[in-house]
Amino acid sequence: MTYSTEQINKFGMLDWILQLVHAAYDLEPLRKHKNESAPLQPSTEDARIFKELQLQARFTQSGPRFHDKTRALEKALIKAFPSSTLHYPTGPLPLRPADIPGFVPSSQEDGDEKETDSFAWWRRQNGDSPLYTGMDRGLEKIAESIRREGPFDGVIGFSQGGAAAAIVASLLEPGRREAFETAYNKDHQKFKYPPSFVKDDGKAIQLPLKFAIVYSGFAAPMELYSAFYEPKITTPVLHFLGSLDTLVDEKRGRVLIDSCKNGSQNVVTHPGGHFLPSQKIWLDAAIGFVKECIKGTVTNKATEEDNVEDMDVPF
User: How many CA atoms lie less than 13 Å away from 9 in the CB half-sphere?
Assistant: First the structure.
C-alpha cells in the first residue's frame, strides 16, 4: 500500500538509524537477568515488553547524540508498548569531515586528518565508489548486539541504517547462508556470509525477524552484494520514501523495495526530504505495522497500491 498526503513534516535530520526491536516477556517485573532459571512466558499484547537497540546515524552522530534526535519515535513506541527499553550503541567506524557529503575543508588537513565524533556502519571506498569498506566490522557490531541483547522481533532503520536494516533481516532468513555460498562458488569476488551471524553450533544467531521498517533506505549497489537480495527478502518490510529526498531519491529506494518479496505492498510516501518523519500519521503507520506483524497478520501477498486519502491509516 503506497501512502501520500499534503501534510508536511518539519522534523528534519541528516541521520541514519538502525533499531533492532526485541520482545521480552512480563514474567516478574522486567526479567532483566537472562540467566534466571525460570523460563520466560509470552505475555498479552498490551503487556509485551519491547527492548530496542538503536544504532546511530553515519553523519553527525554517536549513540547518545542520536538518542536525543529520535524522541518522537521512542515516545510512540513506548506508548504503544509499555515498559519498552531502548539501547543506543555507537557504530565501529569513526569518520573524518571529508567523509561527509558536501563538506568543504578550510584546509587540506581539515578534511584528510581530523576525526569527528561521528561514526558509520560502513564507508564507501574512495568517496563515490559503490564498494563498501568496513561492512564486516559494522555487521559484527550489530551481531554482537543481537547476541548480547537479543533475540529480537524486528529492525528499524533510516538511510544507511535502512540499508542495514534490510541486510539484517535478509541475513537471518532461512536459506540465506546457502544463497551466499552459491553466489560465492560462482564468483569468489562476491561478499561472503558474515561469520559473526553464525553461532558456534553452526546455526544463525537468532530466528528470522518478524518485521523491518526502512526509512529512506537503499540497496547495496554492487553485484558484489547480490546475495543479500537474491532470492528476495521475505521478511515483511515497511518502506518510507520522502518525495523531496535528494540524498536517497525514489529510484534508489525502489531498488530496495523491488528486492523485497512483493515490496510494493507496504510503501509509505511522505512529502518531505531526507529525514525520519515524526508527525502522528507517520508514527501511527509505523506502530500499526509493528502491531500487525507481531500478531502475524501482515502477509507478503501483493495488493494494489492505494492513496492515503482513500483508506484508513495505519493498515
Answer: 26
Spatial distance between the Cα atoms of 13 and 10, rounded to a whole number of angstroms: 10
Please, are residues 235 and 196 in contact by the beta-carbon 8 Å criterion?
A: no
What's the first-to-final CA gap in the chain, in angstroms?
8
Three-class SS state of 273: coil
pLDDT score at 100: 62
Cβ contacts of 235 within 8 Å, gap of 6 or more: 169, 170, 172, 173, 208, 209, 210, 211, 212, 260
209: its cell numbers: 525477524
Helical residues (DSSP H) of the chain, grouped into ranges: 63-69, 71-80, 108-112, 135-149, 160-171, 176-186, 250-258, 280-295
Q: How many CB atoms lie within 10 A of CB 222?
A: 14
| pLDDT value of residue 38 | 33
Contact predicate 291/249, CB 8 Å:
no
Residue at grid coordinates 520522502: 242
Q: How many CA atoms lie within 13 A of 12 on its CB side?
A: 9
Query: How far is Cα 207 from Cα 172, in angstroms, rounded to an integer?
Result: 6
- For the beta carbon of residue 282, count every other beta carbon within 10 angstroms: 26
> Would the CA dihedral through 99, 105, 111, 116 be positive or negative?
negative
Instruction: List, for residues 55-82, the tens digit of each pLDDT value.
Output: 544 554 565 665 666 788 888 988 998 8
Q: What number of other Cβ atoms are within 10 A of residue 239's Cβ?
A: 25
- Indicate the SS3 state at residue 282: helix
Q: pLDDT of 213-270, one tens digit each?
A: 999 999 998 899 999 999 999 999 999 999 999 999 999 999 999 999 978 889 999 9
